[in-house]
Amino acid sequence: MTRMVMCRKYKEQLPGLDRPPYPGAKGEAIYQDVSKKAWDEWQAHQTMLINERRLNMMDTEDRKFLQQEMDKFLAGEDYAQAEGYVPPAE
Length: 90
Description:
Elements: E1 4-6, E2 13-15, H1 24-33, H2 36-52, H3 60-75
Antiparallel strand pairs: 1-2
């Protein structure tokens, strides 16, 4: 049976992650109240931000920026977009 969580991004019961995505308290908090759907969307958005903004994951400031954007994204707040990105028409 799939583990369900009250997703903090979508404010509804959705399937949760199989395991915490990070070690420690941050990973446990994400595991407890972020859905797999929201996490998968964040992973895709994170990749786009890294590529479009040419973030260097060896740079502390770039990692801090990405962490802040992840917190905003998962909380359903306004978050950074890739410059000039237009989502595909559905």
